Amino acid sequence: MLQITYFYDSDQIDVDNIVKPIQDAIKGLAYVDDNQVSDLLVRKRNLSGNFRIENMTSTLAEGFARGNEFLHIVVINAPNQEVII
Question: Has residue 82 got a pLDDT over 90?
């Protein structure tokens, strides 16, 4: 499963335009081929907006500390493929 969160502070881009370039960029690093990715979670959040972070990692904290827009990308095992919803 590929989880991508785009934290922005000015002009936002469409969520659907975020996915493919990132998948291509981490090909060979996180997986052999992007056809291995069976599940995606893609979000965008305004840095000035209201949201809560649970279980903040040091990497995510570093992104916020810089104060500029950034991407947070996580690759984890996909949920049970036998369960649809």
Answer: no
Residue 82 falls inside a structural domain: no
Token reading at 6 = 């785009």
Q: Give pLDDT tens digits for 1-32.
A: 899 999 999 887 898 899 999 999 999 998 88
Domain tally, the chain: 1
Examine residue 83 and state whether it is found in any structural domain, yes or no.
no
Q: Which residues contact 43 (CB under 8 A, 6 or more apart)?
A: 4, 5, 6, 15
> Residue 19 and residue 21: Cα distance in Å, rounded?
6
* Range of the structural domain that residue 46 is part of: 2-75
